[in-house]
């Protein structure tokens, strides 16, 4: 059973629903497995806890 972990900043629930559906479909197509076998975990990290190029994303 594939478990996909996505780390990202906070997003709207509708965007997350679409993301989970698309990721699941990709695994179903690529691995020829049932959708029920795919788990997608979204780990949202606040902007003050994420850095890029030496700076917090909250400071951009």
TrEMBL record:
Q: Name one Pfam family in it.
A: Tautomerase
Report whether Transmembrane shows up as a keyword of the record.
no
Residues forming the 4-oxalocrotonate tautomerase-like domain are 2-59
InterPro entries per the UniProt record, alphabetical: 4-OT-like_dom, Tautomerase/MIF_sf
Family matches, as Gene3D superfamilies: Macrophage Migration Inhibitory Factor
Superkingdom of the organism of origin: Bacteria
Entry keyword set: Isomerase
Task: Report the sequence similarity comment from the record.
Answer: Belongs to the 4-oxalocrotonate tautomerase family.
Protein name in the entry: 4-oxalocrotonate tautomerase-like domain-containing protein
Q: What organism does this protein naturally occur in? A: Streptomyces hiroshimensis
Q: What is the lineage of its organism?
A: Bacteria, Bacillati, Actinomycetota, Actinomycetes, Kitasatosporales
């Amino acid at each position: 059973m594939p478990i996909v972990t996505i780390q990202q900043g906070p997003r709207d629930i509708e965007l997350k629903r679409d993301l989970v559906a698309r990721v699941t479909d990709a695994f179903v197509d690529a691995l020829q497995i049932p959708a029920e076998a795919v788990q997608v975990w979204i780990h949202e990290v606040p902007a003050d806890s994420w850095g890029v190029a030496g700076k917090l994303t909250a400071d951009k």
